[in-house]
Amino acid sequence: MIAANDVTKRYPEGREALRNVSFEITAGEMVFLTGHSGAGKSTLFKLLAAIERPTSGSVVINGQNLAALRRNAVPYLRRKLGLIFQDRKLLFDRNVLDNVLLPLAIVGHPAKEALRRAQAALAKVGLPNREKTFPIALSGGEQQRLAIARAVVNRPAIILADEPTANLDAASAQEILEIFRAFQQVGVTVLIVTHDPLCLPGTRPRILRLDHGQMSEGQAMPSAAVALP
Amino acid sequence: MTSWLAQHLAALRDACRRLAAAPLNTLLSLLVVGVALTLPTAGWLALENLRQLTGDTPGVQQVSLFLTLDASKRDVGEIESRLKEARLGSWRYVPREEALKRLQASEGMAEIVASLPRNPLPDAFVVTPDDTRPESLEHLAKVFTAWPKVAHVQLDSAWVKRFDALLRLGKLVVLLLAVLFAGALVTIAFNTIRLQILAQAAEIEVARLIGATDAYIQRPLHYFGMLQGALGGLCAALLVSAGFGLLVAPVTELTQLYGASFTLRSLSPVDVLSLAAIGGALGWLGARVSVQIHLRRLT
User: Judged by CB atoms within 8 Å, which residues 144-203 of A form the interface with B?
Assistant: First the structure.
């Protein structure tokens, strides 16, 4: 589903953010990508979302090599991904419902079906009855749920989330993880970029670890598990 | 097809929403566009009225030949045969008796004519040549003057020519004004779209990140420029109509004092629609250029 082969990303000023990174994620997996700050996590996220391009190597998503993707094909690739950004990128001048409707408007769904889908997405992340609220009035955890609802409203097969639990208290972070887990259980491939891999009780998720731009693999320590209250 | 139409309708709705969201800004922009379009439109309308005032005369150009008072029937015949030979176009012979009768018929002239001891009018020919280029008319006048018993040749078209030249000059001025203000309108649209893009920077960024094509982002901006231009055109139509409305009464009075009947023509529905269409097209052009430049800068 997602594969990186010998990916190197060098920035113009000479800094090498990723060096010979290779990994593969199969359909329906839920994987954490972790590492210290500056290890190259966000760079890898940007490569996977086709925001940036690798200096060498190939990034393949759904059989499409992003390194060779034409500029005008990028929007159509992004529509197949559920992207959750570190700074959430919510629009504060429109209400919750309109935020979730945006991806559907971009694809061009008929209004009635779009409304139904948006409401379903909001229900799935646990934000029903908040349609007319503006994002500024939501808590951090609720804003994150809204960001997830917007990412999944087009029913993507892949979710890429950059630091979705950062700045959230443990309980909210766990609720967010539960939402991702629910999507994984219905077959969605989930990649979560985080500096602090949490895992849910009873799971031992796969972990990709970046260290100074190079990758190693492992599993989450059970000690990192957060106990349910 | 229906999805394409829905996307365009959505973009149009979006543009309308943005225009309505800042009513004061929108009103000011519309006024600026309206005023910019008013000057060339008013100039054009004034020219149209002047052209109507002269009627269809610019097409009819005549040369009058007046014979000497002692010209005999034979001399008249001579001129007739020369005109026939020359084949210049149509011509008409006006005998001196007929000319006198016509003069008597005009108001206030009957007594004067009756007091004259004899007919002071000469025989005349009115020639309407096919070739009405000014230089050929001048040449014709010279040829006629050289004919026997021709006392005077008059180019009836002289004043029409002068008026025509004046109208042409006026047209040129209006055209220059139109080009100037069209440029202004494109610039206005360019700038408002630049401000729109700055105001929507966050939304444009997010939309791009979640899969919006360039067309999706540009469409509402194009409609915005087009709507602003078209509404500005309607504004201009309103201003011009109001201005000419104020002129109707004095102009009618003035022409009546000269014994003429003339009604000032204002903008027709077709003119109003054309104005809106021109404004819309120029606004769209400005928006397009602005979008090309400023959206690229945003990424």
Answer: 150-151, 154
- As for how many domains chain B has, the answer is 2
Q: For residue range A93-143, what is the model confidence (pLDDT) as tens digits? A: 999 999 999 999 999 888 899 999 999 999 999 998 899 999 999 999 999
Q: What pLDDT was estimated at residue A228?
A: 37
pTM: 0.75
Residues in chain B with CB shorter than 8 Å from the CB of A72 are: 213-214
For chain A, the distance separating the N- and C-terminal CA atoms, rounded to the nearest angstrom, is 35
Closest by Cβ to B207, choosing from A72, A102, A151: A102
- Residues B236 and B275 placed together within one structural domain of the fold: yes
Give yes or no: residues B138 and B210 share one domain: no
Chain A hits for B207, CB-CB cut-off 8 Å, are 102, 106
Report if residue B2 sits inside a domain: no
Nearest to A83 among B203, B209, B212 (CB): B209
pLDDT band at B91 (very low <50, low <70, confident <90, very high): confident
Taking the C-alpha atoms of residue A111 and residue B220, their distance in angstroms, rounded to an integer, is 18
pLDDT in tens, A8-28: 999 998 889 999 999 999 999
- Percent of chain A exceeding pLDDT 70 equals 93
Report chain A's mean pLDDT, rounded to a whole number. Answer: 89
By three-state DSSP, how is residue B126 classified? strand
Domain boundary residue among B156, B189, B222? B156
Chain A residue at shortest CA distance from B202: A91
Does residue B161 carry a pLDDT above 90? Answer: no
**End-of-domain residue from the set B117, B137, B156:** B156
pLDDT for B60: 58
ipTM of the complex: 0.88
Q: Is B206 touching A (CB cutoff 8 A)?
A: yes
Question: Could you tell me the maximum CA-CA distance found in chain A, to the nearest angstrom?
Answer: 51
Which domain, by its residues, includes B247? 7-56+161-298
**Any idea what the CATH number is for the domain that residue B105 is in?**
3.30.70.3040
Chain A, chain B: beta-carbon pairs less than 8 Å apart: 49
Q: Which residue has the tokens 């000014």?
A: B134
Write the pLDDT tens digit of every residue in B141-158: 888 888 888 888 887 666
| Residues A106, B203: C-beta atoms closer than 8 Å | no
